[in-house]
Amino acid sequence: MDIKGAVKRQIRAATQQPVFGWRVWLLPMFFWPLFLDVPVEIIRGGGTRLVGALLGLGLAWYAAALMAQGRRRKGAQLFGVAAGLTAGLAAGITPPIAVGLGFGAWFGVRLLTADLPEAAAPPPPPEPARPDPLDGPRAQLSRIAAAAPRLPLGTLLLEAAGAMQGVVEDLEARPARLHEARRFLAVHLDGLSRIVDRLEAGAAPPETLPSLLTDLTASARKLRSELRMAESEALEIQVKVLAERLRQEEP
To answer: What integer pLDDT is reported at residue 32 of this predicted model?
Structure first.
């Protein structure tokens, strides 16, 4: 029973949420004599003491606001600075002692608020999504397929676009081969897209256009065959390497 009770107390202690409460906002009240000192120094005309009193009050309340936001360490440091400036400027204490009082205030605030949580760092901004290099070719092929039925030589245009669509689909399945098809996509597909643009603008197709479209279709099919052959060769090499390793591991 004692063990169970100890475990329960540990669980409650681990799950208990720290509360900021009165400790944060009452910390600046240690500087309450400065509220009386400010009007006195205004009447006396003590510029240095007045500046020290105002700095001590302002920094103390700002430190409390930081701690209320969860920035405990920063707030404790600022309380130490406020205490040191107040001691040195408003009270006229010698600098070494004023610095020591500042460190004492910082240490005391750290002890008093040791159970307060430190504000978590904001999460890093999400990395912008990288554009898919095949988005452009997909858009071009969609536009060509939509426009081809209304244009002269529409059947040949659709055949060329279909063959190029097959290349894009192969590259989607094997993105590592994209570098091998960059020139094809940049020259052949872009050229076909420009041809469609001219035909849509009312240009008459030249006599050499049918053979060119046939060549584009054949080129796309050849590229697909080369990509698949490269994959087959890579698979064959991988099989040979794995088989050789297995033979080496055999006793």
So the answer is: 67
Task: Tell me what percent of the chain is helix, strand and coil, each rounded to the nearest 5.
Answer: 80, 0, 20
Q: Which two tokens stand for residue 143?
A: 């536009």
Closest by alpha carbon to 120, among 71, 73, 77? 71
Please state, in angstroms and rounded to a whole number, the distance separating the CA atoms of residues 58 and 214: 81
Q: What is the distance between the alpha carbons of residues 34 and 26, in angstroms, rounded to a whole number?
A: 15
What is the mean pLDDT of the segment spanning 185-208?
88
pLDDT value for 224:
83
Round the CA-based radius of gyration of the chain to a whole number and report it. Answer: 39
pLDDT recorded at residue 1: 42
Domain ranges of the chain: 15-112, 135-233
CA–CA distance from 133 to each of 54, 94, 137, 138, 163 (Å)? 61, 69, 8, 10, 19
